[in-house]
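Dear colleagues,

As part of the handover before I leave the project, I'm documenting each prediction I ran so the next person doesn't have to rerun anything. This entry is a single chain, and its sequence is reproduced below.
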Amino acid sequence: IMVLDIEHFRSDKGGNPDKIRENQTKRYKDVTLVDKVVEKDDAWRKLRFRGDLLNNKRNVCNKAIGEKKKKKEPEGDDATIPEEIRSNIDELTVDQLKDLT
């Protein structure tokens, strides 16, 4: 059994999925599996990027909270998040967080 590195499926990383398709054909195996792997890998990479972005935003929030606590600013009693911030979480900045309590 030969294990294929995922990099071989990624044409943007120097891989060649056509070569893998050719090898599948020579082995009388299903060629559509290569397309499925490429499709699933693309979806995973997009989700991983989104997850990394959201982790970064969480770190921004934690930093803002830490700075407020360090300055002994009041924490407030309203835990609701305004809709304009929730709908644009990808563009969230520290300045937007300063107005929240």
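The radius of gyration is 23 Å. Helices lie at 17-26, 32-70, 83-87, 94-98.

All the best with the project,
I.
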